[in-house]
Structure formats: C-alpha cells, structure tokens
Specification:
The radius of gyration is 23 Å and the shape is globular. It folds into two domains: 10-229, Chloramphenicol acetyltransferase-like domain (Chloramphenicol Acetyltransferase), CATH 3.30.559; 232-402 and 424-471, Chloramphenicol Acetyltransferase, CATH 3.30.559.10. Helix content is 31%, strand content 20%. A hairpin with a 2-residue loop joins strand 3 and strand 4 (69-76). The protein is α+β, with helices and mostly antiparallel strands and 484 residues long. This is Acetyltransferase. InterPro entries: CAT-like_dom_sf, Plant_Fungal_Acyltransferase.
C-alpha cells in the first residue's frame, strides 16, 4: 500500500489553530454475546490503524517560534517506541454495568474516557487515544481526540477507518477504501493548506471573528481533578427528541412566512436551519429573562461551526481528517419591530422565520472563494495563538450528517448500537446528534436528537417555553400563537 505516513513531524494548519486545544470524546457501544472476541477485534483493529496512520500515536507540541510565526503547533512522534504507548486502554466495569444503558444514563464520563476535556498543561498533548470499557452485555468504546488536530467529521473518519481495520481482521487490508485515501492524501492536503499564500484581503471583515485562546489556569497536576469537577458541577446536559413531523411542520411555516414577506422567489430553509433558529429563539429568552423587558433586550450572538469539505471543489478534501470548519456568526434580529395587525405569537413567528432565513443566507455565502480567502487571512497572522474562534452567547453544532450508525466493524462487533459524546464545558451549547438507523431497514421518520448544555437550574425555564414544548411533541400552542 502506497503510504505517505512516517514518523516525521506533521504540521498543523492555520485552520487547526482556530480550534481550542482540548479533548472531545466519542462513545460507541456494541451489544455482544462474546465480549472477549469483541475486545480482541478492537485490539487488532487499533493496532492496525496506528501502524498504518502512525501520526495518530503522536503528541501535539507548541513551538514558541517556527518558520517566522509564533506559537505554532506540530505533531511530534511519541517519545520512545510505539509498542510502549498505550493506545487502547481496557477497563472492566463489573457485572452491574450494561452497555445498553450506560450511555443513556449519562454517567460520569471521565470514568469511561481516556482523557477529560482538559488535561494539565504540558508540553505534549496526545493526538488520539482509545478506551474499551467492558460491560456486562458488551463494550463501550471511547475515543478521545485532540480538537487541535481533528474536527468532529475528521474524528468520525478515524472511527470509520478503525471499522475497516476491524472488519479486515487478519485477512490483509482489503476493502479499506477510506484508510487508503487517508494514507494517500492526508499529509499532502495539510501541506497544501499550510502553504497557502498569506493575504489580508477578504470579502468581509473576518478579523473580528478570531482572537486569543481562553486562558487555561496555571494549576499543579494534582489540582486538575478538582478544577474539572468544579467546572462541570455548574453545568447540566440533557437529551431531547424532536419528532420529524414537528420539524417538517416548522419548516413549512417558516417557508410560508418568508414567502409572504418577499415579492421574490425565496429559498426553503433546511431542517437544520429552522431547528437552529428555534433553539436560538428559546435560549435567548432564558438569557434575556433577568432583563426588565425580555422582548426588547439586546440581541443574542450565536456561532455555528460549518463543515467546509463539501464546499471545496477538490474531491480529496472529502475524506480529510484535519479541522476543515469555519464559524457562521450572527445575532438575533431585533424584536422591537411591530407588525401592524399581528398577534404577539405571529410577530414572534415572523422573527423566527427571519432568523432562519438569515442563517440560510449566511450558510450560502460560505463558498470556495470565501474559504480560500479565510485560509489566506489566517496564514497572514504572525501569532497563531490569536486565531481562535471568538465565543458567542449561544453555540450550536450539527452532527446530524455523521454516519456513525452506518459503520460496520465486522464480526463479532457489527454496527454501533448507541453513540454519545462528552464535551459540555461551556453553555448554552446545543449539539444535533447523528441520525440513527431505521430499525429493520424500513421507512419512517427519524427524530432529531438534540443535546443541550445549560447552567443547572435553567432547564425549568426552557421546558416552560411553549415553543420548545411544542417542538418536543407537546400540545398545540394557545390560539393565535404561531398558528402552529
């Protein structure tokens, strides 16, 4: 197999530097009759994966100065022999724990993950590690990935490559199409981005989108456990299901409102767009609640990561592992505008429709030229620690497109039974989780699974919002409200 992989240092691109240096952990559960055989398949697959793409075993190191830029990150080979690096930890959890229930119950994820979201500042941060959690009825596989190296789509490609390695078993690397593409293209694509000529000329003012990374406390290693526990103690993450029928109904209502407000042909907002607009609207009310006048409070800012792979004309980027995202930024429309003859509910619907159109138009504006100019702008910066995406009042990220439930790990593991992620370090934060497979292969509408992180005590206000209650499948709103 033609491979570009080596033990040489791998440059992280300017786009990689827009992401924080923290860990996101993905969890995939497998219900198994023979747990030992499943573990052996994972162990063999992980060994093959790291031997074929060996920079995954490396560490991220920050160079104070490199090639004329400051604070540049690179992947260095691991210290010592690869055989001495624990790439897959194995952790039994006893007969009381089941893989079928553990992710649904949102356990204390640090017990199940190779790394917490933040680790004590050191010179070296591993790129990627796995942990096999042995349960009574199966295995929960955890993969902690360094966000400075991958985005969620890239990390899912790593999982897919692992599924190919597990499926191949000891029969050689047959039918490993993605693994082969990564070997052919990954390093050269990173070099292509890294060598983009710098330029400060862009279509819009993107300089306001970036700034220094958040300051990480200077704590001793033994203090980190307490710090992480206190940080997470203030936050809560809950899971919600939005019926597909309600999402389609909301799309139709927003489309109709947009069409009636315009004399021209208007675009139809996507499900992702209208759900985003609804969540921003509901969460904004929570943020504005302490104000004397909720509806005229200052607009809330929001940010949405956008996957750029499908927006580039270069086909090789479709399987790129590295960060290839930008952030769509915006703010909620003013609610001070009064529409003559409209009820309060109708006015709020109009604002919701306007917001969905605003998000749709923002997404449409991110084309190849915009992407290339943004990369060139990032390349022009002298200090790469100052190109992190700036925060916003509300963060939304869609993982609906990630095909984790379609990954076939081969016998005896099979397909992923359940999938979860652990990140909730900030709030308000909304994740649209991957679309589940339809059981039995038949038709049917798959609900939207949404995970929301808020400060503890805020969920009562969210659940009391009539619009949020309606999208969950609750009773119709009072007469005149939104005409739903």
């Amino acid at each position: 197999m033609d491979s570009q992989q080596s033990t040489q240092r791998v440059r992280l691109t300017a786009v990689d530097h827009t992401q924080p240096k923290l860990y996101v952990t993905l969890f995939a559960s497998f219900i198994l009759a023979d747990i030992e055989s499943g573990l052996q398949s994972l162990q063999a697959g992980v060994k093959t994966l790291f031997s074929e793409i060996d920079f995954l075993a490396g560490d991220v190191v920050t160079h104070p100065e490199l090639e004329g830029r400051r604070n540049v990150r690179q992947i260095h080979p691991p210290i010592g022999a690869l055989a001495d690096v624990t790439l897959l930890q194995v952790k039994p959890h006893g007969s009381a724990s089941t893989a079928s229930a553990i992710l649904e119950s949102s356990p204390s994820f640090p017990d199940y993950a190779p790394f917490p979201a933040l680790i004590a500042p050191t010179e070296r941060w591993p790129v990627l590690r796995f942990q096999a959690n042995l349960m009574r009825d199966g295995i929960v596989l955890a993969m902690s990935f360094n966000h400075a190296v991958f985005d969620a789509t890239g990390a899912t490609f790593v999982l897919q490559a692992l599924s190919e390695c597990c499926r191949a078993g000891g029969n050689g690397l047959k039918d490993t199409e993605l693994l082969s593409a990564i070997q052919r293209n990954e390093i050269s694509l990173r070099q292509e981005i890294y060598q983009t000529p710098p330029s400060n000329t862009t279509q819009g003012d993107v300089s306001n989108y970036y700034g220094p990374a958040a300051i990480v406390p200077d704590l001793q290693p033994e203090q980190w456990t307490g710090f992480m526990a206190s940080l997470q103690a203030t936050l809560s993450t809950r899971k919600f299901l939005f019926p597909a029928s309600r999402v389609e109904q909301l799309k139709a209502i927003c489309s109709d409102s947009i069409a009636r407000a315009s004399q021209q042909t208007t675009p139809t907002p996507s499900s992702n767009t209208v759900i985003s607009a609804l969540l921003i609207t509901c969460i904004r009310r929570i943020l504005a609640a302490p104000c004397a006048d909720t509806e005229t409070a200052h607009p809330a800012t929001f940010v949405m990561p956008v996957n750029l792979r499908g927006r580039l004309k270069t086909p090789r980027f479709k399987t790129y592992l590295g960060n290839m995202i930008t952030a769509l930024r915006g703010s909620t429309p003013s609610t001070a505008d009064v529409i003559d003859g409209a009820s309060e509910g109708q006015q709020q619907l109009t604002h919701l429709a306007r917001l969905s159109l605003q998000i749709h138009q923002g997404l449409e504006s991110i084309d190849e030229q915009h992407i290339r100019e943004t990369i060139a702008f990032l390349q022009a910066q002298d200090d790469w620690s100052a190109v992190n995406h700036k925060p916003a009042d509300i963060i939304l990220s869609s993982w609906r497109h990630l095909g984790v439930y379609d990954l076939d790990f081969g016998a005896p593991l099979g397909f992923v039974d359940d999938f979860e992620m652990d990140f909730g370090l900030v709030e308000p934060l909304c994740f649209f989780m991957p679309k589940r497979r339809v059981r039995g292969g038949g038709g049917g509408d798959v609900p939207w699974e949404v995970h929301i992180t808020l400060k503890k005590g805020k969920f009562d206000a969210l659940l009391a919002d009539p619009l949020f209650g309606w999208i969950l499948g609750g009773d119709a709103l009072p007469a005149g409200d939104f005409a739903l």
